[in-house]
């Protein structure tokens, strides 16, 4: 409960709201809000929702559901999370911790020779960024084809038709960043 009060106070101060101003908006007394912020009282779920709404955040954010990403920002390469492997032999690894507050996802994709991005890279609202760590990759974007070599990058809107192919005889590795995160 102490952490909840601290988060509410921190959000309120970051929003440049006085305690009595937020209390009025929420419909509770300044004393009641002070007790919540100082962990001397617990808000009802209705009050907590109103506080979150007036601070332009979520109840989840106030109760700390997203602190795993904030408190654990480091993922060592050997601790990357395997996500999936498609039929053609491309493997997808998540390069960050899980969390609902993320605004992007970062992945490593390993393309075996002859593999492609089918069922991995999909058309969706948002944007994508690819950076070739090793090897060579062909990206088909709308009607055009682009060949990316080591250290080349590609940035595009994800709502356009796109696919990636490893037509070389060696494994290709790319860092792939997408927004919004894949839900």
Task: Describe the model.
Strand 5 and strand 6 form a beta hairpin. The longest helix has 13 residues. It contains six helices and nine strands, in the order H-H-H-H-H-H-E-E-E-E-E-E-E-E-E. The protein has two domains: 64 residues, 434 Repressor (Amino-terminal Domain) (Orthogonal Bundle), CATH 1.10.260; 103 residues, Jelly Rolls, CATH 2.60.120. The protein is elongated. The strands form two sheets. Strands 1-2-3-9-4-7 form a six-stranded antiparallel beta sheet, with no helix packed on it. A three-stranded antiparallel beta sheet has the order 6-5-8, with no helix packed on it. Helix content is 27%, strand content 30%. It has 183 residues and is of the alpha+beta class.
**Number of domain units:** 2
CATH fold name of the largest domain:
Jelly Rolls
Oligomer: single chain
- The total strand number stands at 9
Order of helices and strands: HHHHHHEEEEEEEEE
Strand order of the largest sheet: 1-2-3-9-4-7
Radius of gyration, whole Å: 23 Å
Strand content: 25-35%
CATH architecture name of the largest domain? Sandwich
Main β-sheet description = 6 strands, antiparallel
- What characteristic shape results from the CA principal axes? elongated
SS summary, helix count: 6
Structural class: alpha+beta
Write down the CATH class of the largest domain.
Mainly Beta
End-to-end C-alpha gap: 29 Å
Round the mean pLDDT to the nearest integer and report it. Answer: 90
Unreliable residue runs: none
Helix content: 25-40%
- What would you give as the CATH superfamily of the largest domain? Jelly Rolls
Keywords: DNA-binding
Protein name: Helix-turn-helix transcriptional regulator
